[in-house]
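Suppose a classmate hands you a notebook page containing two proteins, each written out with its sequence and a corresponding row of structure tokens. How would you begin to make sense of it? This section walks through that situation. The first entry is reproduced here exactly as it would appear on such a page.
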Amino acid sequence: MPALMPIPKNVTFVTFDVYGTLIDWETGIYDAFAKEAARDGIEIERDVLLALFHEISREVEAGSYELYAEVLRRTVVEIAKRLEWPLEPSRAGFLPDSVQRWKPFKESNIQLQKLAKKHKLGLLSNIDDKLLGQTRRHIPTDFDLVVTAQQVRSYKPDLAHFVECARRMGTKKGWVHVASSYYHDVAPCLKQRVPVIWVNRNKEPLDTSQKKPTAEVPNLREAAKLLGVS
């Protein structure tokens, strides 16, 4: 059965989620937690930590808007409670402070440079402008459009990022979004009828209630191939 929204024959604009898609944030998050917990003689299991991080950060984002740095701090405090780690809330800044050290996946910059020769590129991210600026030091590509949670005062999967992106582009024609989070990006793209390539690095299965994305790939290199870049 063909995708409900196939990749356009003439792709003009490709947008990306940043963290998890271009940046290996799970490693960055774990490394930051492991280093801070070691100060207290505590070891944290990576899988346990990341499951808690994704659950709690979504809960925090669902509340009234606040800067992503604060979302990260509040997430740290709640994770520490769940793990019975007696962390002083004043130390919770270690996580937003670590964002500047989160590195791109090995293929990210190579594929972005190739794609930039053929298409306009954009970023749609659940972050604030300051922290994104720190991340972009690791990504030399120039982007034609950037929409952050701070700019729209909203977190994906709310539709504000995608509505604002379409407004700035002036059309949805020829637009493809590339992202690793089904929850934050694929689901809202399907609602907005925006073709979406799901970079499913962790091989997450879909349940019967979840609609299929336009395409599913294991990494950014395979996504670039679908966009005509090899």
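The notebook's second entry, a different protein, reads as follows.
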Amino acid sequence: MNAHLQHFFADKFRGAKFSRSRSWQKHVLSEVEGNDNRFVEQKNSTLVRAYLGRESLTTQEQADLLNELYDLMRVYYNFYQPVLRQIERSVHYNAQHAPVLRRKHDTARTPLKRLTEAEVLDQKTRV
């Protein structure tokens, strides 16, 4: 399956790197390029497990219902749930000369609001 996907995307995304990861194994390139698994697991914990707990789902009917829930959750969380975006990060030193990381965030807005404010969509799509 991976070979087919790699071949399919090779023409669409030139220069993209193909990588693999396994559960409980640190990604080989994580120090250099970042490890996105931690973000996925964080979302799983806060979204999916908050609704379903940690029980395993074993039947096809359960999988179908879960996929319906995912579709609804995806729309809600990706378009209508307000998020903060970091706009600045700087290092300052306290009285003991220890480095302190300070982050500055913009106001919380929904991703849909950010998209419409960016004015990258035409008027027909925006409505």
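A careful reader of the second entry would note: The helical segments are 2-12, 30-33, 37-52, 60-80, 111-117, 123-126.
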